[in-house]
């Protein structure tokens, strides 16, 4: 079971994901330079957070043209797992591997804070270890987390179970105050139709150690590990 | 008569004569420009050097003291910590976003130039009153600039402070600090020693931005300052991130003989300092410098302060490996020359020799001044203020809330939520959790505690005592997390040194700081002086900002400030001097900036700090919080808010008025909470350290109640009132 963490110029959460997989989960993990295109050896690939190409032009707009992104299409078609976190989510949206797009946060500021997430689809390879009704606490850190998708697509996504995470308050209510970015319908994470590509704005890798305050993010990685261990990769 | 060219460049007549002596001829325009920027206050410390020599710069584990890009201290097991603070006041006052952003960029380069991986950023900010729309604009853009740069490079901003005072209205302060970690064997220095080594310039292309930025930083702000906007550089954090990765990789692969970033005074500074430190010379060809704009002349290339550039000395045989790294990170670079052994810096441009100057004269030849100093008239007057004449507040609830909600004391969450304070997944104590930021060191059990502190108002009222207090406060904040203070870096923000009253403040403050450092056993390993913080004849408060770094042997034992559990005991450790003089209460409730600044007994402070470290290490305490700005009332409210719990306390106020007790400020006092069963151990250990201990009551839910021994209930308020 082998994980890959893609490094774009400007990625900066690559080390965080790498150390989590290697040291905390004791997994087999390797960095993938963005110019690589040979991905056969991996079972799951993570596009980490950060500022690929400085977020110049638009977050993810330049990184989507990296050679690795071409190969990632084939990787996904084979049913293997791809997780995009924060900037990784933005890149996947720019590459149209996930539906939707991102605007500046409505308050026009960067926002780094803990949020609560409601998990709307616990049948995915990324969420199968999450208990029914369980809220997850983890941080967001972005200036462009304001997710948008048109009405028709949103309807389809709801039907397909593609809206995976929503921002909620600590009582699990879907309130505007719980939304750190102004994202449409409090959407914090979505998956593709097949369910093997997940994008999420919150950072599960930052909530994977009691020393740092929360372990809820581990559930995402645990889910992936158990899914792969069950031979479903 | 029009000023001579050297005067227009900011040099004085006797300085120009010194240059003539050093060269034995008249300098050409480019050479004169080089001397002017390197002999500016910003680069040469010509008004401060003699005074700064009082600082203790050596101590246990110090691998690098002042004089390099950053100070470095050994922390055991083959690892070291590098840190430095620097001002970016003037640029931030006219172009706040870029001024603050490039301040962060510059201090990060200072850290990775030493071969250290930056792990934390901090900042210390001063603005005018919040009711001024210009202040709101400055705050928003400065905070955005700090976040815009640090977030993008991916280094967490974990701690900081913001004060609001009238004196900073026209001259805000933006001080940025960075901390890095390195294996001792990777320690890299900004020196070029072996003749024949190649000189390589890497990073952003050189443009016409920032020319004479340091000269601008070495004069007072005035109505024409706006015209100096082109002197402010523009930052590119993405380029910085690539440069950081590439330089650290080059150091890890041992490809670098010496490395220096191009900051203030640009290529001039890097070339002359690297050569001078290594006792060498350098020959460079300016035609090879990658330029952003066409037809740049030698003067512009040498003085440009374009950001995100680095100069390296490299052996011939390592060039290929180095090129591979730079090309992978898609960084522009060029071999621009060689190290020589004759101590001269020579440069060619378009086939002609355009510069030929002794490196040491330019880099280190600036004269050192010891200006006249004179005790200011305000000093005695402000001190003679009588606390006893104050009318005590009628409503202590109202008074506490007034102090608690004053902008300087209130939570700064509005700022730090705009900074990524968690990237690198190592921030154990987030902003607002504890008295200092705490980071774990990956792969070890250790942790680093980091903080910045400086209360200009107290230094203004008594520079000597204020200077002492600044050092004590910063190190106490480190100790309150359970860390042992390792050393400090300082950013000394003052008015014009040519004003005797300002210079007196400077002398006194440095003397106080040096005294505190000596007794507390913390060396000053790096720092920065920022003079000329004046606008319209009015100077800022003398504002030394102290950045401190401490070491936790076991990071999981670190202490935060919030009360943890109902039923825990609440106690005071230490009984330092207390005064309403210069306090937040006196300013906010009585509208006075006056009074006696409390005295620090350094040895008492040292024992208290050592005690807290010991108690943290032994797991005796549940929480610890330094009693600082706003006094006991604010400290209690902060412990309650951070923990979501209240407290029920009975406090003896013998010989003290309630307002002095609740709002008096002073050093050497720490508020702790602990499980009741640990009391005996606490009493024993506090006794060993000779630190006074008094138990005041218990943590309870929801409500903060303070009863006095005189019988009256001073406070009885629900937590909800604090937010």
The proportion of residues forming helix of chain A, as a percent range, comes to 10-25%
* CATH architectural grouping of chain A: 3-Layer(aba) Sandwich
Quaternary class: heterodimer
Shape of chain B: globular
Number of strands of chain A: 11
Annotated CATH topology of chain A: Rossmann fold
Strand order of the largest sheet of chain B: 8-10-7-11-9-12-13
Helix content of chain B: 25-40%
Q: SS-based structural class of chain B?
A: alpha+beta
Strand order of the largest sheet of chain A: 2-1-3-4-11-10-9-6-7
For this structure, what is the CATH homologous superfamily of chain A? Class I glutamine amidotransferase (GATase) domain
Low-confidence stretches of chain A: none
Q: Uncertain segments of chain B of ≥5 residues (pLDDT<50)?
A: none
Listing every helix as H and every strand as E from the N terminus to the C terminus, the arrangement of chain A reads: EHEEHEHEEEEHEEEH
Helices and strands, with pairings:
The complex is a heterodimer of chains A (233) and B (723).
Chain A: E1 2-7, H1 14-24, E2 28-33, E3 44-47, H2 67-77, E4 81-85, H3 87-94, E5 101-103, E6 111-119, E7 135-142, E8 146-148, H4 151-160, E9 163-168, E10 187-191, E11 197-200, H5 218-229
Chain B: H1 5-8, H2 13-23, H3 29-38, H4 41-44, H5 49-52, E1 62-64, E2 71-76, E3 79-87, H6 89-94, H7 96-112, E4 117-127, H8 133-153, E5 157-164, E6 173-183, E7 198-203, H9 213-216, H10 237-252, E8 258-261, H11 266-277, E9 281-285, H12 298-303, E10 309-314, H13 319-328, E11 333-340, E12 344-349, E13 352-358, H14 359-364, H15 377-383, H16 396-404, H17 413-416, E14 427-429, E15 437-440, E16 447-453, H18 456-461, H19 463-480, E17 484-493, H20 500-520, E18 524-530, E19 534-535, E20 538-539, E21 543-552, E22 569-573, H21 584-590, H22 602-617, E23 623-626, H23 631-643, E24 646-651, H24 658-663, E25 670-674, H25 679-688, E26 693-700, E27 703-708, E28 713-718
Parallel strand pairs in B: 4-5, 9-12, 17-18, 24-27
Antiparallel strand pairs in B: 1-2, 2-3, 3-6, 4-6, 7-10, 7-11, 8-10, 9-11, 12-13, 14-15, 15-16, 16-21, 17-21, 19-20, 22-25, 22-26, 23-25, 24-26, 27-28
